[in-house]
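User: Hello, can you help with two protein structures?

Assistant: Certainly.
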Amino acid sequence: MEKNNNNLMADELPNGNGLPNRNGHGIPNGHGGHGLSNGNGVVNGQETVAPPATGWRQTLWNSWDAFADVAWFIICCVGFIFQDLYYIVFGYPEKELNTDIALITGGGNGLGRLLAERLGKMGTKVIIWDINKKGIAETIEIVEEAGGYCKGYVVDISKKEEVYKAADVIREEVGDITLLINNAGVVSGLHLLDTPDHLIERSFNVNVMAHFWTTKAFLPKMIENDRGHIATIASLAGHVGISKLVDYCASKFAAVGFDEALRLELEVLGHTNIRTTCICPFFIQATGMFDDVNARWVPTLNPNDVADRVISAIRKNEKLAVIPGFLKALLSLKWTFPWGCVGGLLRRLVPDASPQGLPSSIGAAATSASPVNGKSKSSMASTTAADMAALDAELSSVTLPAKPPSMLIQRTPSLGERVL
């Protein structure tokens, strides 16, 4: 009896909250028999964590914070709109480029050469990268004859090891790049199922993957010096799809996305003095890429006009330059009208992006040289020099008549690949 009394007294002793530990029926801490917790958050001997209280004050503050953020966003948007209208009326401020060191990929011919010539005349130190050694020499000669500074290097930008190595050489021999123009590009101009795998890979490696390698090579010093500009020569094909340009369009869509995401990331990180510009021109004449394009309603562009527009966009720190400008308004309609309208317009605007294409024997030989069903690429390596010479000869037979000597048109001996 004495033992039972002692046990009962122990059960009725108060805990740290002044509540009895157990009642006579084994019910926890005077809260009833439903496993309710005490002030310490104990349920049936198991400790629990009570959720934090969210009162009406916290709810009101969250609502006010969201409202203030939206209101500030609207005010900023109105300010940006008025600023843009002011610049449209009175002109955009233009920066000088005479103290910059510019790198132009694909500077051995075409648009890259024209950009190098213009920058050289402005006093910019120009560096060009290309796979065409002869084209590099010609560009250097043109720039130096006009009184500019120009150096060239043979670099295959599709190979990141070459990019990083050449970047180190430039920093040692010339200095830090402050203006990077990712201009080099390739196009195949074939239907998707007729395009050899290695040309699809080459399109992505040159048209977009190289942008990653060049940017990673030079952006750190731009950030360190708090000064820099990265220009992406994309295409209107980076906004709309075109038949026979599936790989090209896909790579240019990626290039446009690369520019936009990079710009936003730099802003988020606070590097607002590093600018980016995305250039999206229609088909350009006499660059070796779209000389034979069949386009209607919108004329193909003069490369000199495009080069002038690119330089102007860089000097004005424009974010996006669509050439010609009126197509920028048409792009907004793409998301408004049904696909039947959009697809019909695109088919009529560009009936055939590559009318001459490639001789069937070239396409067949290229396809046979590509891996099929996971097989090895050894068949590509076994192609004889005589076969390659025959392919090159047949490819050159479909080249258009030569353009004026001021422009170099290059069709590489790469089974139909055309290079800008």
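That covers the first. Now for the second protein you mentioned:
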Amino acid sequence: MATGRRARARAAMPKASDTLWDLAIAEVEKRENPDDDDDVKPGEVWEKSILFMGNKNGGKTTIILRCLEREEPPKPTLALEYTFGRRARRHNTPKDVAHFWELGGGTSLVELIRIPITSHNIRSFAVVLVLDLSKPNELWTTMESLLQVTRNHVNKILTKLEKTNPEVAAEIKQRMWNNLQRDHPDSALVDPFPIPLVIIGSKYDIFQFTSKSEALLLKARALINPLAFGYDKSKSVSVDPSKPLFIPAGLDSMSQIGPPPASDSDLGKIRANTPLELWKKVFEKTFPPKSFCDLQDTKDPAQDSQYAEYEVDVMRAQKNQELEQYKRNASKSWKEMDFDSD
């Protein structure tokens, strides 16, 4: 049985030339011929998936390329893009597969998260949220919008799993609580994200007098590698606000963070039910947020030169001309029509 699963895993392994449609077809075939998705045995191939999302032009592609150790310039992401990496956990073992999905367009295409996050991979799925620190007026709105839609989608999957496979649903929920110690002072305030989540504040290096982007990218890779390839989690912790923060889940608390930077009189005027809500109101007073509509990406990707295809573009131009001619003829016919008056 194990040998059969390995054979199928090899057959389903993606190729670099695979398009999004190839992957969609493979996913349908997998659902029509489901395998036994029990825990992977020693010597078998692990498959994990990660979805990167966040601000547009926030550095998501750069982080993915560094995690995969690819030396190539990042390109703008259109809609939802996919790549993968393979790496062995130890010497003389099969290479595990990590599926990397990247959501482009900031918050404008968030509904596309339904494509990579499914009931079939939810046990091995993780999310990396990349927030651009150089755009504080977009930061909180982007975070809330993306995380809320993702949480709702994952919760719908878990609700269905509770009916079809309650043990797996319970395991996923319990696993997220395991990151928090039982005696953690904030346990009553915490509502864990339903799947592993890493939040990265990108472009921190622009606030430094000397560039430290390489060292920061290495720290980001240290956070992502355990999610992608099952490496041991980093035990490094940095809570010094004068330096880049590096805080694994469950190793911080509201008492350590302290109150937001505002006077006691100002804090007394703010009505908030939780510490997070208090922080949000103080943050947004300092950095007035852009509205959700302002964050929508309205640029037509069909006009982007990087996706130019001569034959397609010629046909599109011809159809546009035909459409304009149809509009003119229809308008002329409408004006010439006689209407009987009652």
